[in-house]
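Record 1 of the preview.
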Amino acid sequence: MDKTVKTHIFPEGAKSAAAQNNLTEAQEKALELVKKNAQLQEEKNRSLELQMTIEQLRAILKQEQAKTAEMAEKAVMLEARVKELSGQEARIKKTDELEARIKELTEALGKISGIASAGKAG
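->
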């Protein structure tokens, strides 16, 4: 009784291994796509966060520019006030000088009046 054993040129394991390799390649490609999509989503999220930060910084910049303009306007007003006060100070000084001169002249006039009265009496 002879038994014959049939052997295949490509063993069954080789066929299934090739199928698994193909399936694995497809799975690897799918996995790679999933990873790339995740990276893209992360980049998109980062981009959105950065865009929001930029918008916030622009708003802050506008506020700071408005404050700066307001401060510049106040500085101009203060400078005008300082000039006005300096002018008033100069006028006060001149008034003090005039009052001192009037006092001197009044004293001199009193002396002159006294001398004139003494001259009339004598």
